[in-house]
Amino acid sequence: MLSRIGSTLRRWRRRFSRSEWMAHLLGLSTSESAPSDPGLILIQVDGLAYPQFKRAMAKGRLPFMKRLIKKEHYHLEHLYPGIPTTTPAVQAELFYGERQVVPAFCFLMHETGELGRMYDPEVAALVEKRITAKGRNPLLKGGSCYLSLFRAGTEHGEAHFCPADQGWGPALREASPWKVFLLLLTNAWSLVRTGALIVVEFVLALVDCVRGVIQGQDLMRELMFVPTRVAVTILMRELCTIGVKIDIARGLPIIYVNLLGYDEQAHRRGPRSAFAHWVLKGIDDAIRRIWRAAHASDRRHYDVWIFSDHGQEQTTPYEEHFGRSLGDALSEALSELPAKRSLHRRKSGRGVQLERARLFGSEWMEKMIREDESESPDASSPLALAALGPVAMLYNVDMNGHSRADIARLIVEKASVPLVLYRTDPDDPAAPVHGWWREGAVRLPEDGAKLLGSGHSFPIQTTADMIRLCSHPDAGDFMMYGWCDGQDPPLTFAMENGSHGGVGPNETHAFALMPEDIPPPDPKRGHWRPQELRSTARAYLRGVRPAAVKHRPQRGNTLRVMTYNVHSCRGLDGKLSPQRIARVIARYQPDVVALQELDVMRERSGSLDQAERLARLLAMNVQFHPALHLEEERYGDAILTHLPVRLAKKGILPGPPPGQSGLFNPAADEPRGAVWVEVQHNGQKLHIINTHLGLSRAERLRQVDALLGEEWLGHPDCDGPRILVGDFNTLPSSAECKRLAGHLRDAQVQAPDHNPQGTFFSRMPTLRIDHVYVSPDIKVKGVLVPQTELTRQASDHLPLIVDIELPDGKS
C-alpha cells in the first residue's frame, strides 16, 4: 500500500518536474531502462587536495559532504592521480584507462611540432584521437559530460562546455524562441537565485581585484579576471547543475560533471586562501542538489561518487621570485649552446583562467591581454620551451658537444630550477633516468625517496610515473620541476599562487568520497587510482556489486545481528531491486541477517529467487522457509550468515483462533512461520529464530506461545544463548511483547545509552514493531536503526541492527 502511494506521488511529481519539462521542451531523448537499472553520477571537484578537503570540512565549508559521511555511510578515501597531476591526464585514465596520455597541460605535439594546450579544441581532439585509435572503450558511452576535455564516448550534443562543443549543446542553441521563453519561465526561481549569486560573487571578485592590485598584481589582468571568476565560479556551476538534473530526469546511464570553481580560485590566490575555500560552500550545495535529484529519480537507481582529479601546491611564480622569466633564465644558462638559442615558447602568465572563459565564447578577453614580444615564437630556432604550472619541458636541444648531465647542471645552478630529469638516451625508452638538483646528480628510481621527501604520501608510485613520463613521445628532452624536497617556496612557471601538474605532496594527493559498500580496490594499499575508479564504475553499471562484506571488520567476540523486513525487495519508490536491499545489508556488514517478506519465483517480483540472489550478492549461506507455498511461488522468511550454520527447524506457526479469519482483510489469513538455525561464532554456539507474526492480537498471542513452547525456544536442544528476531507487528507495550519479556530481554531496552527507535514505516519510523529479543546471558553492546536515503527508500521498514557479546566472550 505504502509503496503504491509513494509511486503515485512520484509520478505526479515527475509530471510537474522542471527537469522533465526542460528535457521535453528541448526534445531530448529519455532512457528506456527499467527503474531498478543502475546509473552513475561522477562529480569531480577540480583541484581539491585531500588535506584541503579535510580542512574545509573542519571549517564547515562542506556541510552536505560531511553529512554524507556521518549519515549516509560514505567514506573518505585517498586517491593518487598519477603524474602529471593535470585534469586531461586524470580524465584520460578515468574515461579510457590510458595513463599519462599527455606529459603536461602544455606540451610540444610531435605530430605538428607546435606548442599546444589542452583547452585548445584541436589539441584536445588530437589527444582523444590518439586514445581512440588504440581501441579503448570509453566510459561515458550513452551518457553525458560537463566541463570535460574529452567527449569520452558521449553522443553528439551530450558533451557540454567542452573544448570541442562550447556551450550547452545544440539542443538549446537550436530551440525556438517560445521554448526558450518557457524554459526561462519555468526556471524563474533558479534564474533569480543564480543572478543573486552572480552579484555577490562579482562584489567579492572586485574586492579580490583590489587586494591583488595592492599586493602588486597588474591592474588590467586583475580586472580581466573579474568576469572570468564570476563565469567559472557561479554561472558555469549553476548551468552544469541544471544540466545534470535534466540528464538524471532523462535516465542517462552515466553522467560526469567537473566543478571548477575551487581550482579557479586556488590558481589565483592559493589553495589555502579564504577565497578558494569560500567557493567550496557553493560546490557543496551543487552536489547536494545533484545528489537529491539522483535519489529521487524514477528512471534509474543512481549512485553518486565524488572525487578530485588532483590537488594544488601553494606556490610562488618563478618570474616573481627571481625577477625574470624562465625563458630568459634558460637563455642565459645555456649561453654556451649554439647561437640560435632563442626559445619558441608559450607565455604562461595568463594561466588557464582565460582559457576556461573561452567555454563561454569569451575570446575577446584574451585579445585584450597581449603577449610580451620577447615571448613570441622564433620560427628560425628549433629550440622550444613549454612551461605551465610547476612543470616545464625543453625540446630540441642542440647539445653542441655537451653532455646531458652538463646541461641539467647548468639549468639547476644558473637558472635555479629545483629539479631537472632526462634520459641518457632519449631514443631508448628503457634507458635510465638521471637528473640534477641542488645536491648534485640523481638517478631514478634509486633517489626517488630522497627527491620527494619523507612527507610525500605516494613516493613509490610518483617515482615510477616520473620515470615513465620521461619516455612520453611528447615529453621534452629535459623535464623541469618547480618542486622537490627542500624547495621552499615551491615554484610555478605561471603567474599564479596555486599550481599543479608536478610531483608535490599536495598535488599528488586527491580524494574520493565513496559509498561505504564500494570498497577500495586494495584495502591494504589504502588508495584509488583513476583507472580503478573506471573499472569499478564499469562493473557497477553492469550490475556487478563489489561485495563490501568481503572486507568484514574483525569484531572479536562481538556478533552483529540484523533483522529486516524487505517488503519483497520493493521500495517505497516502487522499484523492485534485490541489489538495493543487498547494498543496505552490505553497508552494515552483519554476521547474521534475518529477513522477512521474501519472494521466491513469484510472478509479481519477476519470478526471481530473492533469497538465493541476496545470498549470492552478499556471499552468505541462506536458510529459507516459505510460509506461503502456491505451486512454484513461495513467500516467507530467511536467515543469512557467513558463519558456520546448521538448520535446526523451520515450520508454520498457529493461525488465528477459529472464527477470526480475515473476512475483510485477506492478509490476515496469510500463514506465518519461523526458521531456527544454530550458528558457531569463535567456538561458541548461538541459537537464532526468525519470525514474522500475524496481524491480529489473538493470532500473535497464539504464535508467541508456540515460540516459547517446547517446539521452539523451550526445546531441549535450544540451550545456551538464544535470540528471537523478526517483524512482530506489535508494539513493545502489547501483551505479546510483555509475554516475551518474561523469558527474554528487549535488545533496544538493554542497549547502553540508547533510546529505543521505531522501524516502521521507513519514511516516518514512529512504530517499533521489529524486535530483537535476547536471552539473559547475552550482553547487548549497541543498537543501530539507520535512517539514510537508501534505507528510507529500499523498503517500508528500516533495518534493526544489534551488536551482542556472547556470555563467555571477552570485552
TrEMBL record:
Domain Endonuclease/exonuclease/phosphatase: 562-797
Biological process according to GO: GPI anchor biosynthetic process
Superkingdom classification of source: Bacteria
One Pfam family here: Phosphodiest
Keywords: Endonuclease, Exonuclease, Hydrolase, Nuclease
Protein name: Metal-dependent hydrolase, endonuclease/exonuclease/phosphatase family
Cellular component per GO, a single term: membrane
Molecular-function annotations in GO: endonuclease activity; exonuclease activity
Gene3D superfamilies to which the protein is assigned, alphabetical: Alkaline Phosphatase, subunit A (3.40.720.10), Endonuclease/exonuclease/phosphatase (3.60.10.10)
